[in-house]
Every structure is written in C-alpha cells, then in structure tokens.
Amino acid sequence: MKPNPVPNPHHHPTGHQRPVEAPDVDLDLSPSHLCDLELLTNGAFTPLTGFLNRADYESVLADMRLENGALWPMPVMLDIPETTATRLDAGQTLGLRDREGVLLATLTVGDIWQPDLRAEADAVFGTTDSNHPGVARLLERTHSYYVGGRVHLVQPPLHYDFPHLRHTPAELKALFEKRGWERVIAFQTRNPMHRVHQELTFRAAREIEANLLIHPVVGLTQPNDVNHYTRVRCYEHILKRYPEQTTALSLLNLAMRMGGPREALWHALIRANHGCTHFIVGRDHAGPRNPATGEGYYGPYDAQELITEHRDEIGIEMVPFREMKYLETRAQYVPVDEIGPDDQVREISGTEVRRRLSEGLDIPEWFSYPEVVAELRRTHPPRAQQGFTVFFTGLSGSGKSTLANALQVKLMELGGRQITLLDGDIVRKNLSSELGFSKEHRNLNILRIGFVASEITKNGGIALCAPIAPYTATRREVREMIEPHGGFIEVHVATPLEVCEQRDRKGLYKKARQGIIKEFTGISDPYEEPENPEMQIDTTEMHPEKAVQQILLKLEHLGYLAVD
Ligand code: PPS
Question: Cβ distance 287 to 303 under 8 Å?
C-alpha cells in the first residue's frame, strides 16, 4: 500500500502559520493542556472560547453552568506554576507552546488566582480521595495557580499518528453531510472493543435507524488503560465487522477526567458539537473504581440520570445502553432483560481478559474477534516476556541496597533479561548530582528514577530501584509511569528506624541527631509508609538470601519468571 504522503491540511502546521507577535510570557503545555487546547480551538468545547476565568469556574463547580447560564459541567483550566503566575498581568499575552516549543496558541490573560483544589475535587468528583484518578491528578499534579482567558489559535497541534482518523467537529459534520447521514449515534470508549460492544452498538444504531460513529478517546484516559495505538488498530479491525457504509471511526483527543455523571454529560455535549444526534450511555459511564474497595465512586446509572435531567438543553439524545450478555444456549448476545431462567450465560471480566493475555491463555471467539485478540497479544506479551521494575523503598540503612544487589545477582544467574540497578547512591552520583534532600528535590530524583525504569521496563528489561522514596504520591506517579509497560513490584523494606539507626553503617544517623545533616529521613524529615506494597520485608532478623528468595517467589507467582 502506498503511504499517504500528504497529511490532512487541517493538521498541518505550515498551512496555518501566520506571523504573531512574541508573547509576553511563554508556557510549555502539559499533555492534558494540549488535549484541552485542541478541543477548545476546534469547536469541540463550544461555547467555551478559552480556559475558564474565575467567575465561570466557580459557576461550573457550583451549578454545572457558565456564568451566562450555558450548561457546562467540567472545568477546563490552565494551571501554572507560581513562577509564571507572578510574571503575568491581566491583558498580557501568554504563549502556549507544545513540547518542542512550537507556539500553538496565545491566551489573552484574564484572571489569575489560587484555586481551592480540594473544593474543586469535591464539587467535580464528589470526593477528595486520591485513589480516584481524576482527584489524584488534580490534587497531586496541578500547579497552584489558574490563569483564565480567551485563546487564539496560531496553529493546530500536529498529530503524526492516525491522521486519517482525526476530524475536527466541522470535518465530521461535513463527512456526515457528504454521506447523507442524518441520524448519527456516537459510541464513546476508552477500551478495546470486543464482541459485546460491537453487538450493542450495532443494535442501538439499528433500533433508532441511525448511522454509527465509533468515537474513542485517544487523549488521556486512565493510567492503566490499553494504549491508544493498540486500541485504534483494534477499532480498525472491528470496523470491518459492521455492514459497509453504516459506520465510521473517528478519534477524539480528549483528556478524560473520569468524572462519572458530570463527565458523561460533558461527553454528550462534545458529541453534539461534532454533529451527532444520539449518544450511547451505558453502565458506569466514565466512572472509575476505587482500587482500595473495588467499589465504583458513582452509582451505575447516575450518569444516565444526570443526562436525563438535562435532556431538553443538550442538543443530543441519549440512548441508554442495556447491558448485554452472551448466552451459550442461544449462541448470541442478548440484553439482560431478555435472559430466561434456563439460559446459560457466559462472561469474561476485564480482569480475566488481562490475566489470560498476561499468561498467554485462550480468549474465545464468542468474546472477541480473533484479529482483535491478536492485536492485543502483540502489545501484551505474556508476563514471562515482559519487562518489570522492582522498586525498593525504605529508610536509609534499611537494607534496600543489599537486597537490590543480591537480587540483581540472582536474576543474572537465572538469565534471560538485561538488568539495570538504580541504587539511591548510584543515581545521586550519576543522574541527580545537583539535587539535595528537600521534598522538591527528592521528588525530582524519584521521578528521574521512574523515567529511566519505565524506559527499561518498556524495552523488556529489569530495573531494580533502591531509593528512599519517602513520598506516597511520587511513588504512585512512578507506578503509573511503569505499569502500562510491564510489571511494577513495590517492596517496602520495613526495617524499623531504631534498627536502621543502631546499624548506622554510614554514620549518617549520628550526624542527623547532632543536627549536622539536616532533613534526614526518619529523624528530621518524613517517611510516608507505603499503603499497598506488593511486598514488605523487615531485614532486622532476616538474612538477605532468604529475603531475595521471597522476592523471587513473588516474581514467579506473578508470572514474570515463568519459563515457557
Ligand atoms: S530520596 O529521598 O529517595 O531522594 O533519597 P535517595 O536518593 O535514596 O538518597 C538517600 C541516600 O543519601 C544519603 N543521604 C540522605 N538520606 C536521607 N536524608 C538525608 N538528608 C540524606 N543525606 C544524605 C543516604 O546515604 C541515603 O542512602 P541509603 O542507601 O538510603 O542509606
């Protein structure tokens, strides 16, 4: 097949470049800002014209409306560090740049303020629990200032991946028009589509006599989701399973917040802006589960209820999705309310799919099309072929380095994968030589380790990390960087402070007690104990060899060492 040499002109920077005056201040946008900016400037977030100013923000939090009364459930905010905020004044121009420094848009500075992020979390997500991914991002990864103001596009962000599947709302409307599609039902997803999704979308479209738009989110989703490259290849396969000319696929560069009902209402408005007339909303739409309890943060049908409350003003009709299940007895999927007492239901949960992929086990054809399963297997090889990171955390002198070194030798003895040891001291010498021990510097140090370990893991190697890593939020961030690429095994080396201090191998505790070393972990600086580590090891009584055996058994149990 000939490669497509001419990218879509709507995504090509040179086609749109105009000379612009140099902005007063510049800002490098984060991945989620980039998503928001794209949808703000291409019409997907109509009626917004920029990042929210303070009055709109407060009104959205309180009433899900802009100050002028327009329904808008989700704050779209530009957070900036204090160093940028103090250099900005209302009326100035802020340059919004991508990661390469390309100027994508300018913002005419309106309000600059310090938001109460906990109040925002409570209003938008109904919780301040950091196990909720939207809350975690808001409370742990948001700068302390917001700046609002109208944005002016300089050039749209450029996408090199799947340009043929990206459409602005105007392009999508034109496509529907060209194909003569008057009723279009949109299906939102952040997961691979299996047979059940194909069945339910096909049924929904047939029942309301509409054409179908598969409209997956490819911006930001949950940290552990299947990456969008793999998903899009799966969607392209499944598209061929619909009757020809009935269904289209388009990618939405949305940064999801996982805000359940508010998010679902927002999704509906976005689909209305893309020219869709109907929108499928199922159970638990955009609602994450609390990993600590396994429970959802929202009622399974809260999203449907909230949309129903606003049905008259959203400009799109919701099609509530009835859950469907596969009946062995009838060899087909049917809505749950049509299942009889003698029908034999078959089910495979998402967790079970991941288990089967990670162990290289069969996934039956009634559950997913073989070409979709093959695609998933390409990116999710069995665990025995994946990379992984063992992340030791604990006090100075707890035994992290000893265990990491011993584990390295044992793993080398087993062979098979390349191993890199990222010990606290080694890293501080090579990667982080300019850093001290303030909270900020420690976090920077850990994120660097996380970055290197995630690259190693992604490439199928083993990273053994052994820093103190005293802060829970940073350890979580590292986990989120690594888990999409392979294993992350957090080992809390829980040797008590008294024992570490008694050992005092490097004489540091003595100096810390004398005040010669400041900010010393456990003495004059905090250590937040891990809440749910994969393993906890106290080296007070345990010989390193025994401890390493336990880690090896754990790795084997998780499937990372299995021979195939
Ligand atoms: S952190 O918090 O994860 O960034 O720390 P880390 O990079 O692991 O570095 C810890 C090693 O530095 C020595 N050291 C200190 N530790 C804690 N607090 C203070 N103030 C401090 N100053 C120096 C210490 O030897 C640590 O090594 P380990 O192997 O943990 O004993």
Answer: yes
